[in-house]
Amino acid sequence: MISFKDLRRKDHTVLALGSHVPILQAMLDFEYLCGLSKPTLVGIVQSASMKKSQKFFWGAVEIRVPIFASIAQAKAQLPKVTLFINLSSGRRVLESTLEFFLHYPHALGGHIFAEEVPEKHALELFEAFGKDKVIAGPSGVGLLLPEFLKLGAIGGTDINQLLKNNLATSGKVGIISASGGMANELINILARNGKRISVAFTIGGDRFPVNTLLDTLLRMQADKQTEYLVYYGELGGSDEYELVELIKQKKFKKPVYAFIAGKIGETFEKPTQFGHAKAIANTLDESASSKIAALKEAGVKIADSFAGFIKLLQEIPTSELKTTNSQLADNLKHRRSTLFTTSIGKEVNNDYFLLGDPLTEWIENKGLGEMIISSLLGRKVKSAITAQFAEIVLKSFMDHGPQVSGGVNTMVAARAGKDIVSSVASGILTIGSRFGGATNDAARIWFTGVQSGLTALELVSNFSKEKKLILGIGHLKYRVGMPDPRVKFLTDYASKHLKNTTHLDFALAVEKLTSSKKGNLILNVDGAVAAIMLDLLSTIEGYSVEDLNELIEAEFFNALFLVARTIGFSAHYLDQKRNDEGLFRLPNDLILSDN
Amino acid sequence: MARKKISEYTAKKILIGSTYTGVQINNTSRQNLLLKELSPKAKYVVKVDQGEKKRFKRGLIKIEITKIEIAPFLEELRAKGFSQFLIEEFVPHSGEYYLSFERTREGVKLLFSASGGVEIEGSGAKILQFILRSAVDLVKAANETNLELDWLTNIYQKFEDNYFSFLEINPLIIEEGSYTLLDCAVLVDDTSQFFVKDWSGDDFITDRISTPEEENVALLDANTPASLKLQCLNPNGSIGLLLSSGGASIVIADEIHAHGKASDIINYGEYSGGPSREETYNYSKNVLSLLLKSTANKKVLVIAGGVANFTDIYQTFMGVVDALTEVTSQLQKQKIKVFVRRGGPNEAKGLQYMQNFLQQNNLFGCVYGSDIEITEVINLASKHLAAL
């Protein structure tokens, strides 16, 4: 049986199943105030998330916590997790909690936040984990070990609440509460009166919490740091008689201060359902008055009114407050959300650092190709071969004459008297899947082809069935027997420097099939660049399948053309300005009028 | 969020299946059509199907009646305020047994007695008890009760598959190997609607007539992850309650009870779980409607709750003020003052906002935060009521 002592450590790793940003942020704020060196929240599992990470504040600065689509994916990145916080809806609690322990059987426990968990599901979780793990809920606001751990909304979600409740100092009072709101009320009352808490556990208002009251009481008894117990219960159910039994059998020996709410229920004609699922007294035993009488008889300190209860609590000795670092609190209060996240560069003392190195270092010691490809990838390339290949690609893409459609547009705009930015933009805006922008789509075709294990023949027949073009194949000018010299150069380079050319081999196998049908259906420069770049990144640079997928989704492969051809279009713009032939108009005989 | 009763008709349809011939009557317009189908020669049982207990004693069941006697009896029951009925063919019988299942932490608890037909508790009848956790337990229970294993297994399976929490068949008639469920009551776990197909929220029965305000709130509650509950207790009481937190709301209601004013409470309820401004507005609107409708000449409104963990006080108070704004002149006319105590995230801003509003509109009773005890607001409100 995991004890509260086992949880009193500062190196937990918490996985959130589902998200509730204010609650998670408050956990980080608590940890920051307690002086933890880093947040315990290591990941969020959210299958329907559009984001890859969620920003949180750690003190005054922001950090990113990764979002995973499944617990299995989280496990691959985070082999060790000690606790979970399940923030998913009631109907998904069983499935997600079972899956969590399947992947993390050694985790210590967690908190289930949802209130609408079916009884049958709660009991299944009780059978599987109730006896061993520490699990607060379903329902309630989690569990709190001041100075160490706040798992859930317990103790508040507002910085002022965390400070007011003095949660960075631990003490001797244990709290068990059937209500999240009343747990916080008690934390607040104790803090105001100088009492410090050892552990606060919301067992929740459901009929079948995963940890029973009995087991939680035994944990409290075993916890050396806890010297007093404050218990909040309600009408409904008969769990309180277990406390009575434990006291009678001398298995629970610490002073107990209890409040049982719900005497109001006894004034109604019929059993009335109150706010929590368990809060309905169908029998006399389940009424607040019967429970109060039994607890009183067992020696529990119990009052008739809540005001009286608060007076009773004054008996508990006060204990000193550790001085909180006011700088830490200040950092929490003065913070501002950032609007963007970047991994490219930052300014440090007026010096710009690109991917971790000062700009001057790049200027002095690195080539343009290396600098461009590293910037586009958002990380420094590892190999000189990649840098060199990037340079070859940029050169190949830089210009291919004024005849190409983007070039024509640039020239037309230039001759219309437009400025350089507008003219070059008109050229760039021409880039698309038919002109210059096929590299990314080609990369997608080679990548998914290789990943799905299709043969070149299957791929070709799939495309022809769907009457779709294979981007990366085909050229207007070049054909079998008159190959594109750029493609030849690129493929030669690849076979010289790369041991493994899976994507290029696949592309060439496709070319063999298509070019045998029609001579100009050869591998074009877009297709070749896409294939070789995929091979380089996946082998020499160590990119994973997910990394490559991400690059394709972000259109990285088209960036290579865009960067290079901007130079070419600028050249054509300047050239037109020098030659200044005046406004261009298409001669009539170059347009066919069909009416 | 709780165990709810479903109609006996739905329960039997699930347990017995397609061979069940009971007829449900829940509106007058279809009544004649349904009654026409009945045989003029057969004998019938007519009962109120609204979760009522001790139906026989209270005259809510009539047995061995003929087709023509049914309509007048239904009229009689409608006059008593009932609206949902069940008609079944009368089964002459002798042996009456008792059988119940209840979901407990230890397993499904089966109670069986050979003397059914009466309130079994405290009747002195011999009761056999079993905890069902596996097929072996079912075999044991079948052996000792002499119930047919296949029949028992089938009922147990229906109980599990339909997420029942409680099932009582009393009496159960067994004659020559044929089982008849004469009367039966079922509580389902209402959080499991997503997982079942044979019952839904429409099958829940309420044993009293709800106010439109309660119906509005039930509808709101069904469509939000937050919790919104409202029950009208004394429509002409003097204390209106706008409470938050499942626990603190009971503590506050208890405090009113301790002041000897339980019968003055107009409504009990609570909002919690971080409702939005709009949801809080809609909830408050219904509470205010009950408060304004009450004919008591001295009235107060108590807006109170514990120290919230994650419900934003400013957001929710904006919703409350939105609702108060709509009825300000009526509140003023009825001389209703508002007593507030609440803590939680954004507390200072929320309380200031509420205080400004109440003071500007001459509705101010008190506004307390988490530094003042939860029960103090009731002291002040009841002193104010006494002085009116």
Which characteristics define this entry?
heterodimer; A: 595 residues; alpha/beta; seven-stranded mixed sheet; 24 helices; B: 388 residues; alpha+beta; Dna Ligase, domain 1; D-amino Acid Aminotransferase, Chain A, domain 1; Rossmann fold; 3 domains; seven-stranded antiparallel sheet; four-stranded antiparallel sheet; 12 helices; 37% helix; 27% strand
How is this structure best summarized?
Chain A has 24 helices and 17 strands. Chain A has 595 residues and is an alpha/beta fold. The N and C termini of chain A lie far apart (89 Å).
Question: What is this structure's SSE topology?
Answer:
The complex is a heterodimer of chains A (595) and B (388).
Chain A (H helix, E strand, L loop, with lengths): L3 H4 L6 E4 L3 H13 L7 E5 L7 E6 L2 E8 L2 H7 L5 E4 L6 H11 L5 E4 L6 H12 L3 E3 L6 E3 L3 E3 L7 H6 L8 E5 L2 H13 L4 E6 L10 H10 L5 E7 L5 H9 L7 E6 L26 H10 L3 E2 L3 H8 L12 H8 L11 E4 L2 E4 L2 E2 H7 L2 H10 L6 H15 L6 H11 L4 H9 L9 H15 L3 H10 L19 H13 L4 H16 L7 H14 L6 H9 L2 H24 L16
Parallel strand pairs in A: 1-2, 1-5, 2-4, 5-6, 6-7, 10-11, 10-12, 12-13, 13-14
Antiparallel strand pairs in A: 3-4, 8-9, 8-11, 15-16, 16-17
Chain B lengths: L2 E4 L1 H9 L6 E3 L2 H9 L7 E5 L12 E5 L1 H13 L5 E5 L6 E9 L2 E7 L13 E6 L2 H11 L3 H13 L2 E12 L2 E4 L2 E6 L22 H11 L4 E6 L6 E6 L1 H13 L8 E6 L4 H17 L6 E8 L5 H14 L1 H6 L3 E7 L3 H14 L3 E5 L7 H12 L1
Parallel strand pairs in B: 13-15, 15-16, 16-17
Antiparallel strand pairs in B: 1-11, 2-5, 3-4, 3-5, 6-7, 6-9, 7-8, 9-10, 9-11, 12-14
Helix pairs in contact in B: 6-8, 8-9, 9-11
